[in-house]
Structures are given as structure tokens and as C-alpha cells.
Design goal:
Blueprint lengths: L1 H25 L5 E3 L4 E3 L3 E3 L4 E5 L7 H13 L10 E4 L3 H11 L3 E5 L7 E2 L12 E7 L8 H11 E10 L8 E2 L6 H8 L6 E2 L4 H7 L2 E6 L7 H6 L8 E6 L1
Parallel strand pairs: 5-6, 5-8, 6-7, 8-9
Antiparallel strand pairs: 1-2, 3-4, 9-13, 10-11, 12-13
Length: about 250
């Protein structure tokens, strides 16, 4: 009986390996390119609560917005010019974390409120660091989770050097920002804001919130610095905005 059970288990494992191999084979090709890990694929994988086809890199796990940000950092900023930079990365994405650490070394600081796998566990509405500490701040898809996002943006302004810049990303999916602090039930939040841990949906007036903190804001679309072929090949969503923020 034990032999039979072991045999069935072995067959299940083999079947599982075959499924994994078959899936990997289905991605072989050159139609898509991930600029973060430098690999080509026939397609990207499906991803998301509302599943998006052609979104996830199967190697480095980057999404559309990550590939957009990486192309911006490498082609439109001086972050990787070999000079020392102090960078604050809030809620660091795995596809970026090792690569940024390798390039920026001790100047790369990661922070998060909930994850222990960062250098500083902190609330971005009360950053425990001195004024003008960073050359660069990168915060992506975090502020929609923060009840007092205005205070967080003001904190970013405070800890950014006068010559520094911040790159902020939030999902823009309504015409005008919608929020209601009285809604705390996860099911209601999911229904109104798209996820149970979101506290608002942002509209284009997100720029007003950044400017209120004192920042000068440049809204940058993929087509502002990438060719149509780059956008297509890297699987980037054409209407995803980057908000590049500098001190006045």
C-alpha cells in the first residue's frame, strides 16, 4: 500500500513538473521584452484581482508600471550615473529591490509599515528622519492605502533635498478623487475603492494634492519619452501617468 501511495505521489509530482514546463514553453518567444530583467517572451502572464492579460513578467515578476518606471529611471534621470545618491524606496517591489541595492549600495534605503524585510519599519505620515535627507524618493501604489495621504506627501517634501526629486505613482481610475474616512468595513472599501485595503480612488486631481504640499509636478505619460514600439514590446499601459515632483 505504501508503494502504491508513493507511486501516485510521484506521478502527481511528475504531472506538476510537466504542467510547469509546458507553461514555460508557452512563453518562449520575442514579442515581449522586460527591460528590468532583460529577457524576451512571447507574452507576459495574466495578473490581478481583475485579471489583466499580458501583464506579469514570469522571470522578475514586474508589471506594466514597473517596466515603465525602470525605463524612466534608466533613460530620463541621473540616478545611475555613478554618483552617490540617497534614495528612499517605500514598499519596495521585489523586481526593483536587489537591482537598486546593487547600483546604489548604501545610499538605497527601503521602508514599509508592515513588511519586516526593509531597513526601516515606518509610517510615511511620520518619517523618523531629518529634513532634506534624500536625493530621490520613489513611492508607487501606496498612498491609496494611507488615510492621511496629504500628511505623507508633506513628509516626502520635508525629507527631500532642495535639488532632489520624487516619483509618485497611484492608480488613476476615476474622474475625481473619491474617499470617505467613515468607511472602514473591508467589503465596503472593496466595493467603493476597488480593494479592501484601499481608502480612496484617485482622479487626475491627485496633482492638486501633491502641489498642496509644495511640490512642482510634471505629469509624464509613456508616449512622452518612449516610442510606440517600446511601449508595445514592453507591454506598458499607454495611459499610466508618472508624477515627477521637485521642490519649488
Amino acid at each position: 500500500m505504501k508503494l502504491k501511495i508513493r507511486g501516485v505521489t510521484t506521478l502527481k509530482k511528475i504531472y506538476g513538473y510537466i504542467k510547469i514546463l509546458a507553461k514555460r514553453i508557452s512563453f518562449i518567444g520575442t514579442r515581449r521584452y522586460c527591460p528590468i530583467c532583460g529577457r524576451h517572451f512571447r507574452k507576459f502572464d495574466t495578473y490581478g484581482l481583475d485579471p489583466r492579460p499580458d501583464a506579469l513578467c514570469i522571470h522578475c515578476k514586474s508589471l506594466e508600471r514597473h517596466r515603465l518606471v525602470w525605463l524612466f529611471l534608466t533613460t530620463k534621470t541621473s540616478l545611475f550615473n555613478g554618483q552617490p545618491h540617497q534614495m528612499l524606496h517605500v514598499a519596495p517591489e521585489p523586481c526593483f529591490k536587489t537591482r537598486l541595492k546593487k547600483r546604489l549600495k548604501n545610499g538605497y534605503i527601503t521602508a514599509d509599515l508592515h513588511s519586516p524585510n526593509v531597513q526601516i519599519v515606518m509610517d510615511i505620515t511620520n518619517i523618523p528622519l531629518g529634513n532634506e535627507a534624500f536625493d530621490v524618493i520613489y513611492c508607487s501604489h501606496v498612498l491609496e492605502h494611507v488615510p492621511d495621504d496629504q500628511k505623507a506627501i508633506c513628509e516626502f517634501y520635508r525629507v527631500l533635498k532642495p535639488s532632489g526629486w520624487a516619483l509618485l505613482l497611484v492608480p488613476i481610475n476615476v474622474e475625481k478623487t473619491v474617499e470617505d474616512p467613515s468607511i472602514t468595513d473591508p467589503r465596503q472599501r472593496e466595493r467603493l475603492f476597488g480593494q479592501s485595503d484601499h481608502v480612496r480612488k484617485y482622479g487626475p486631481d491627485f496633482i492638486d494634492r501633491i502641489q498642496k504640499a509644495g511640490f512642482k509636478v510634471h505629469k509624464i505619460l509613456p508616449s512622452d519619452f518612449l516610442s510606440a514600439e517600446q511601449i508595445r514590446k514592453c507591454g506598458i499601459t499607454v495611459d499610466t501617468p508618472l508624477f515627477y515632483c521637485t521642490k519649488q
